[in-house]
Specification:
Blueprint lengths: L6 H8 L25 E10 L10 H18 L3 E11 L4 H17 L3 E9 L3 E10 L14 E6 L4 H9 L7 H12 L5 H6 L6 E5 L3 H12 L1 E6 L6 H5 L4 H10 L5 E7 L3 H11 L3 E10 L4 E4 L5 E2 L11
The chain binds adenosine-5'-diphosphate and magnesium ion.
């Protein structure tokens, strides 16, 4: 039997944890934090809606992790240190087991990345979760979408495309190589925000973005934001997605180029910093692939070349809620 909890029991039991760097956390009308001396605040918010971003019958613990992870990813993409989060949750019912598992996943992610949950709102309604997140950064250090320059190289972290393949696999749309199933599902359910990479890109990267809607789509935002054009080389893209789904090359390529939900960082960096960027890869133990370059001024044009340097027509760029 589902034991019914009051809103306040629910908040105090599942969403109140000791904080490590907060003056006043959950429990009053507002939280109080002190920004470290000399630092600026970076703020962002992201919503996860049942049916759109996750299925209502999904694993609540993984969902709790992901709710916070996708928000931390935005702070990482700015090159900032994530610090505080607020959680607004709408739940159709107070199912204690479900909420306990959700909170476990959420706080596991919070601890992993040093984030204090300092407040939120809890209401009954169609299931959705909205996190607001705050990070700190030294003045002038933020990695914007607008800084890419002609001559820069374009890099991507990790192995994009695996989350979309994991989803396609769950939906029965493809078979995956046995060795890759776990990694694809982990990419979908437990994305790893690239905080350490974002913090290390100061002085290297000219622009950065986290890939939530697909590599081409999100890279497109850097190109448009910077007023530049770029060329990508298909054969320089990380090959994990292609290897994960050898039976359907077209689907694997679509996931690699336009699949969302991986939360890798795409960034541009001057070509003369190539070796420093490659060294960062070994220092962080995170694959960084140089996949193309900014070719000149432009309005965001993106050319994709095959192994023989022939242009390939571009697939639909990425996910758009209103397209
Ligand atoms: P108010 O009615 O003044 O908005 P609430 O009753 O909504 O306050 O919330 C009580 C306290 O619990 C507040 O400190 C609020 O920030 C916190 N809170 C509510 N829901 C959550 C949640 N899901 N996670 C974390 N803190 C929450
Ligand atoms: Mg309230």
């Amino acid at each position: 039997m589902i034991r019914v909890l009051s809103e306040f029991e629910l908040i105090s039991r599942y969403f109140t944890r000791p904080t490590t760097h907060t003056l006043l956390g959950v429990g009053d009308d507002g939280a109080i934090v002190r920004v470290s001396p000399g630092m600026e605040l970076v703020a962002s918010t992201d919503m996860l809606v049942a049916g759109t971003h996750f299925q209502p019958d999904c694993d609540p613990e993984a969902l709790g992790w992901k709710t916070l992870a996708v928000n931390i990813s935005d702070i990482a993409a700015m090159g900032a240190q994530p610090r505080w989060a607020l959680l607004a949750a709408a739940l159709p019912e107070a199912d204690e087991g479900w909420i306990a598992a959700y909170a476990r996943g959420f706080f596991e992610c919070a601890s992993a990345f040093g984030v204090d949950l300092i407040g939120g709102d809890t209401t009954r309604g169609p299931m959705s979760f909205c996190v607001s997140i705050f990070g700190e950064i030294l003045p002038g250090r933020a990695l914007l979408r607008s800084g890419a320059m002609p001559g820069d190289e374009i890099w991507i972290s990790g192995a994009p495309g695996r989350a979309a393949l994991g989803l396609a696999h769950l939906q029965g749309k493809c078979a995956l190589d046995e060795a890759a199933v776990g990694a694809c599902h982990a990419a979908l359910h437990r994305p790893q925000p690239r905080v350490a990479l974002g913090l290390s890109l100061w002085g290297l990267a000219s622009a950065a973005i986290d890939v939530s809607d697909g590599l081409l789509a999100d890279l497109g935002h850097i190109l448009e934001g910077s007023g530049v054009a770029a060329t990508l080389h298909l054969d320089r893209l990380p090959s994990e997605a292609m290897r994960a789904c050898p039976g359907d090359v077209a689907l694997a390529q679509r996931c690699l180029l336009s699949g969302g939900d991986d939360y890798e960082l795409a960034f541009s960096a001057p070509a003369d910093r190539h070796h420093a960027t490659a060294e960062l890869s070994s220092a962080l133990g995170l694959n960084l692939s140089c996949i193309g370059s900014i070719t000149g001024k432009g309005a965001g044009e993106l050319t994709l070349l095959d192994a023989e340097d022939r242009p390939i027509s571009l697939p639909r760029r990425g996910f758009d809620h209103f397209a």
